[in-house]
Every structure is written in C-alpha cells, then in structure tokens.
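[Automated response] Your request has been received and processed.

Submitted sequence:
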Amino acid sequence: MQDIANIQKIVKQNQAISTFFACLGFFALCIAILTFFTLFLQMLIFGFDRLSPEFFMNFPSRKAANAGILSAWIGSLAVMLVTAFLAVPLGILSGIYLEEYARKNLMTDIIEINITNLAGVPSIVYGLLALGIFVHKLGFGQSILSAGCTLALLILPIIIVATREAIRSIPQHIREGAYGLGATKWQVTKNHIIPYSMPGVLTGVILGMSRAIGETAPLITVGALTFIAFLPPSPISGTSPYFNFEWLYSGFTVMPIQMFNWTSRPEEAFQQNAAAAGLVLILMTLSMNAAAIWIRYKLRKNIKW
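Generated structure:
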C-alpha cells in the first residue's frame, strides 16, 4: 500500500509540473501574440491612409506625398523569383540525396554538421560571401541575380534540414513494402518518399522564403539601391525567343530597404509611408505562405498511407 501511495504522489507531482509548464507556455504564447498584434495594429492605424493605387504605382520620391513602392515591390518579387528558382529544387534534391542515397560515413557526417551550422549563420556573412563571389568573381554585378543567389544560399540549409526531417517522418514499412514488391530505389523515392514528404518539405520552403523576403543586410552588401526610380526590363519580349534575361542584371531595391530608407528620415509623412510599406510586406508574406499552406493541405489530403 505504501508503494501505491508513493506512486500516486509521484504521478500527482508530475501532473502538477506538466500543468505548470503548459500554463507557462500558454502565457508566453499570449505575450508573443499580443505583442505582434499590438505592433501590427499600430502599423495599420498609422499607415492605412497611404494605401492607395498611387502608392503602389508611384516610384520613390523626395516628397512623401508623391512617394510610392512600385520599384520596391517589383524588385522584391523579382528577387524572390530567382531565390525560389535556385533554392527550392536544389534544397529538396540535396535533402533527398543525403537522406536516401548518401552513404553514412565521415564525409556525410561533416556535410550534415556544416549544413546544420550554416542554418544559424548571420545573414551579413552570406552578404560578404556573395559580394566576393557573385558580384566580383562571377561578374554578376550589383543585380537581381546576385541578390537572388545570395538569398538562395541563405535559405538553402533551412530547406535541406526541413526536407530531411520530412523524409525521416515517413514510416519505414512503406519503404519495406515497396521494396518487397520489387520496386527500385528510384521508384520508391519518386512514388512514395517525395509525395509523402512534400507537405513537410513545403513547411521548410515557407519558413525559408519568409525569412528571405524580409532580409536587408545581405542585399545592402551586394549593392541594393536605397533610391531607385526605374523598373527592370520586362522578362517577356516581342521577338523570338520571347524571353528576355536582361532583367537579371538590372539594379534593384526591395521592400525592407525602402522601409529602412523612409524610417531614417525625420518627417512624419515618411514614417507613415514606411508603416504602409510594412503592411504591404506583411500581406506579401502572408499571401506567399497562404499559397504554400494551401498546396500543402491539398497534398496531405491526397496522401493515402
């Protein structure tokens, strides 16, 4: 009886500790949500009046009333397009190779450790690396291509780690069943591993792209402009082959840099412009994440274990 009483006492203590930490975690979550909501509400109240068609279609100006974000949001979309084109397929394929094909030896252990460490490297380090390699050595210059390559390097470890974790979550019996039916390594990977892990992979893509769209330091390092009154050349031309890649080598600016430029000015009207630009940046991020979440939901719905 004494042993049963001691066990019940230990169980109650553990339940009390679990309840305490659950309440503590919920309290921390409430503080985080309240802080974000307060900042967002302040930004919304302060900058909502500047959201108009002219604000989206005007170039930056020395006059706050005439200033807009046309070059900034076009530049952000162009840079994100290059970033996604480079980082997403390369990161997913690298994660698949490391998890499914690479032999477990000292070399792969070193690669895995370095990938994990690179995910936590400050972004300015990537900017300095890109300045030496992409801007000077490869001759890309201070262009959209250099910016996209820089941000692709920045989020590549995030996507690789997320891909590997998603693959590891797939039950081993799925692989064994496929091999038992005579499937090859590639058939198992193509028909089972990739489809089943894709929802988790998209989570990593969401996190990586959300980080990339808000980065400022590495883009300033590779030569992003703080004031730009022109757009990159159109990627579509009227003559064969109907695609124009000159826009990749064009000068650029992005939304965070435009906001930084406005917040550095003392006039209140420019602060209002910065708040409005912040709202647009948040909406761009949420739209991008919503699209990825919707795709992830559809993929999960179609998965049959």
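Summary generated for your ticket: DSSP finds eleven helices and no strands in the chain. The chain has two domains: 2-48, 52-302.
If you did not submit this request, please reply to this message.
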